[in-house]
Amino acid sequence: MSATVLAIDGLRIAFGSTPVVHDVTLDLRAGRVQGLAGESGSGKTVTAMSVLGLLPRTASVSGSIRLGTTELVGLRRKQLNEVRGRRIAMVFQDPSASLHPQLTVGHQLTDHMRRHLRLDRRAAKARAAELLDRVRVPDPEGALHRYPHQFSGGQRQRIAIAVALACDPDVLLADEPTTALDVTVQAGVLHLLRNLAIERDLAVLLVTHDLGVMSAIADDVAVMRHGVVVEAGTREQVFRSPAHEYTRTLLAAMPDGPGTNPEGTDVE
Description:
Strand content: 25-35%
Number of helices: 11
Oligomer: single chain
Strand order of the largest sheet: 6-7-8-3-9-10
Structural class: alpha/beta
């Protein structure tokens, strides 16, 4: 079993007097994709956002989120900023919202590297082009000088993944990363995430409401409902022998078609 990179233990989140996440425990392991599934409002995105301290100030967070030996719950903003992007990165649902429309792709990639890795301009630019090539953005050298709106939705999401990987993080949080993409493009992005986890020994948390997406690339699956993890196990255990009625209901609602992969084999 690969080493635990990020350990979430007894996580509780509330907004004012309203609890939204109850005692969630998850282990993210190097080279593996941990899926977190559930319907809208189940608490899965809130859980992911809490890892990087991205919740609004009205949120109260307790329990433990440990990155190696570093406790993230209650970490001061300055220290948390050193973790964000450098050791933990996040890919959001809509790349148009996460990429700055008035900055070139090259600027957005190299800015992180120059700040966190202390690379000079030339080295950062070379690494940026390599990253774009790795995520299969056409003409990576030329792409550095273009703006986000000049790319398709699938290409923008690949660029967002490249930005997230710019500083070689240990953990990648992916929040519904393929929801806005068509099925064919979705499959390519999922396959990319899977390969990156293996190649870079990256611990990935994949948040999605789509069990078809989950079955395609997740090694381990946790199912949330009303802020509680109701079932957790390997992909094969959860999809082939679901123990909780809610999980069985979600599986029964899965459509047959592209992207749906209940047998637990990888997307190609």
